[in-house]
């Protein structure tokens, strides 16, 4: 069980990432092996880039926006 901001989320583990000045976010690994990232674009322009399992992703996010991203479980790993 992981704890974030005073709340308990059974079956979640928080993942660490590199902080960015213009984007805040948190990523979690669910018990079923799926991953979720929640991003908040504080300022700036252009796409937000992130990497997961060796793949790079680019998400269009205007300033002030929030995005929730979900990836299924990796094949063969849970």
Distance between the termini: 16 Å
Rg (C-alpha, Å): 13 Å
- Placed side by side, the strands forming the largest sheet appear as 3-4-5-8
Q: Give the overall silhouette.
A: elongated
Number of helices: 0
Number of strands: 8
Task: Enumerate the spans where pLDDT stays under 50 for 5 or more consecutive residues.
Answer: 1-9
How many domains in all? 1
Tell me the series of helices and strands, N- to C-terminal: EEEEEEEE
Biggest β-sheet description: 4 strands, antiparallel
Structural class estimated from helices and strands: mainly beta
Approximate strand percentage: over 45%
Helical amount among residues, as a percent range?
under 10%
Average of per-residue pLDDT values: 75
Structural account:
By secondary structure, the chain is an all-beta fold. The protein has one domain. It has strands at residues 2-4, 7-9, 12-15, 23-30, 35-41, 47-52, 55-60, 66-71. It has a 4-stranded antiparallel beta sheet, with no helix packed on it. A hairpin with a 2-residue loop joins strand 1 and strand 2. It is elongated and about 35 Å long. Residues 22-69 form the Glycosyl hydrolase family 30 beta sandwich domain. This is Glycosyl hydrolase family 30 beta sandwich domain-containing protein.
